C-alpha cells in the first residue's frame, strides 16, 4: 500500500472533488462497438452492501428497468465479497455493476473495458458536490475518550482495535486509511492493516453493515463505514448524518444483522467526503446499443421518480438511493471524473 499512501500525502480530497465536479464529461473512447447476442441475458452484480435483504426491492426494480429498455432477461448477482464483484465485471461474466470508486478503479486496472456511466448527483442534480460520508465510529459509551481539546478526532485511535469493511472499499478502507496516514504523518498505510502495529487488532466486516456490527458487538473499539449503506439500520439520535460528533442508534425495526443490537448507539469521531459510487459496464461484454439504452434509462427523470429505487429525504424505509432533494438523480459520468480517487489508489 506504500504506493497508495505516497500518492495522497498533502492532497485535500474535498478540494479535489470540487475540481473534479467541474470536469467536462465525454463519451469513453473505450466503448466497444461489438454486437453481443441479442438473446443473451444481462447480469448485474452488486457489492455485499447492496446485496443486503433491505435493498431487495430496489434490486428488483432495477432489473425491471433494464429488461424494459433492452428487451433482455436480467440476472441479479449478489455477493458476500467485494473481490467477487470486481472480478465478475472485469472478466465480463457480469456486464453491469454498482460498485465503489476504489473497486471500479481496481476493475478498470484489470480491464480497461470496465467504464463508469452514471452516479448519484448532489442535491442540485449535478456532479459538483456529488459525494457521501465515510466515518470513524465508536460506541457512545466510549466517545469521550476520543476528544481532543473538546473536539472529536482520531488522535487517540492508535493502539485500539479497528474494523474496516474490505481492502477494496473506498469509504470503508481507502479514505479512512488515507486520513490516518495524513493525521499521524505515516510513511505509508501498511502498518494500518497488521495486528499489533498501529492498531492492536484489525478486523474486516466484509460489508459496511458487517463493520458496523463489529463495533456494536464490542469486537472492536473503532470502525470505518459509510452513511448510505447504514441508512436502513441506523437513525440519528443527536446531530445529523453530516455533523461531526453526532449520535446514531440502531432502529427498533432493523433487520439482520442488526436484529439483536437494537437501541445500541455509536458516535462519529471523524467524517470524510467520498466521491459517489459509479454504475459501470463492461464495454466488451455489453453491446453499444444496450450501453446507450441503460445509460438513458438510468439518467432519466422517470428512473429518479421510481420510489422503489429512490427514497425521499428521511424516509422511514430507505431504498438503494436516498434523495437529498427533489433534484437528486443519476447523472452521466466517465473515468475522468474519478481522477481524485485514481490518485488515492495509485493508478
From TrEMBL:
Keyword Nucleotide-binding in record: no
Q: Which residues form the signal peptide?
A: 1-20
- Output the InterPro entries linked to this UniProt entry: PhnD (IPR005770)
**Which UniProt keyword terms apply here?**
Signal
- Family stated for the protein in its record: Belongs to the phosphate/phosphite/phosphonate binding protein family.
Its protein name is Phosphate/phosphite/phosphonate ABC transporter substrate-binding protein
User: Which species does the entry assign this protein to?
Assistant: Lactiplantibacillus daowaiensis
